[in-house]
Amino acid sequence: MPSIVYSGVGPRIAYERRIASLTQADLARAAGIALGTLRKIERGERGISDALLDAVATALDLDPARLLPDTERPDDRVHQAMPTLSAVLAEYEAPEDGPYRDLSALGEAVGSVVTQRLGAQYIRIARTVPGLLAELCRALQTAAADDRPAVARLLVDACRAADAIAFKYGAKDLSARLIDLMRWAAGQTADPLVEATVAYVRTETFFAARAHAAGLRALERAADLAPRSDRPTALAARGALHMRAAVIAGRAGNGDVAETHLDEARALGDRVPEDVYRGTAFGPNSVRVHEVSVAVSLGDGHLGRALTLAREWKPPRDLPAERRSGFYIELSRAQLWSGRPDAAFESLKVARRIAPQHAREHRWVREDAATLRRLKRADAGSLSNFAEWCQAGTGA
């Protein structure tokens, strides 16, 4: 994939460097780049490639999108990755010969993209995940019998990271193919908890098709088949399925069923600490986030519940960024529909600060920003900037 070169980045890098109390020499050393290169970038004398942007953002502990002017398109790299991902999927059962790392190194690489997915670092995922998927497919083809389940589990996790960018950036057919690959790989793990994870992710295909009733049936079946163990990972797997079932029941307008699944998720969430289990955040705080989502999905008389919960509780910083950003996106919709446009706009801005790539690509952010822009003419400047940033009203 060819490198992208961004311009106009220098002032933001300099600003964030000062906020972090770093000298130019400190940042250059942490990012592994020449001091002269960093000075030229900050002065605007040269652009910055996507690789250097990643290095600088990592050194500053920032989302790369935070360093780009709003006029730049940080998702260009994501869109460029889609054809490569599609090519990998076309040959996953019979990949071309080639090198691959040992199981330990592959595990570290997959762990990195899982962390990036939870942090809504889609640009970084796009840079590495196509090659990683190809490598895992080669490893699975030649793996010894004892290693095959472990490689297959890694392939499931890497596919889930790839699906995060495919689904959120509108490549729904590619997302469905990635989920098919996940299901194929899960069958080789001999691990029912991996099967439960895939069932959780597969719900995206039902959301995309608005086939809520079918999606609810699939989730309920998966919850019934999930292991009945008191191990935290098993409890979390079942709880996550009920949490997801509550949301899709809410989208279907079935409040009673949604509440039943929320009750199940709460009971299971109270039995485990909040954590990330097999790539899915679950625990009492994740269930609270989904309570807001269900209330917003049901709409009308249920919106007060979302607003009350948000007054009493906010997602803690140790929740994954994607989940925290999602909470404020859902809350913004509840506030907008309840006649509180100022609060709605503030929530959208919080969602953007937490996970800019997630907020920028979220359909509801675009819809609500466009609505707010029409409603609040007095704030035309700030709203217009936000709407242009997320491409509100473009249908993109």
What would you say about this model in short?
By secondary structure, the chain is mainly α.
Main features:
434 Repressor (Amino-terminal Domain), 20 helices, 3 domains, 396 residues, two-stranded antiparallel sheet, globular, mainly alpha, 4 strands, two-stranded antiparallel ribbon
N→C terminal distance: 23 Å
Please list the strands of the largest sheet in the order they lie side by side: 1-2
Mean pLDDT: 91
Number of structurally distinct domains: 3
Strand content: under 5%
| String of helices and strands | EHHHEHHHHHHHHHHEEHHHHHHH
| Helical residue percent band | 55-70%
- Biggest β-sheet strands, sense, barrel: 2 strands, antiparallel
Q: What class would the helix/strand composition place it in?
A: mainly alpha
* Approximate shape: globular
* Number of continuous helical runs: 20
Rg: 22 Å
Low-confidence stretches: none
Number of strands: 4
Characterize the structure shown:
The chain has helices at 10-19, 24-31, 35-43, 50-60, 76-90, 103-118, 122-142, 148-168, 172-186, 192-209, 212-225, 232-251, 255-269, 284-298, 303-312, 321-337, 341-354, 356-360, 363-375, 380-389, and strands spanning 5-6, 48-49, 275-277, 280-282. By secondary structure, the protein is mainly α. It folds into three domains: 1-72, lambda repressor-like DNA-binding domains (434 Repressor (Amino-terminal Domain), Orthogonal Bundle); 74-189, no CATH class; 191-298. Strand 3 and strand 4 form a beta hairpin. It is globular.
Topology (SSEs and partners):
Layout: E1 5-6, H1 10-19, H2 24-31, H3 35-43, E2 48-49, H4 50-60, H5 76-90, H6 103-118, H7 122-142, H8 148-168, H9 172-186, H10 192-209, H11 212-225, H12 232-251, H13 255-269, E3 275-277, E4 280-282, H14 284-298, H15 303-312, H16 321-337, H17 341-354, H18 356-360, H19 363-375, H20 380-389
Antiparallel strand pairs: 1-2, 3-4
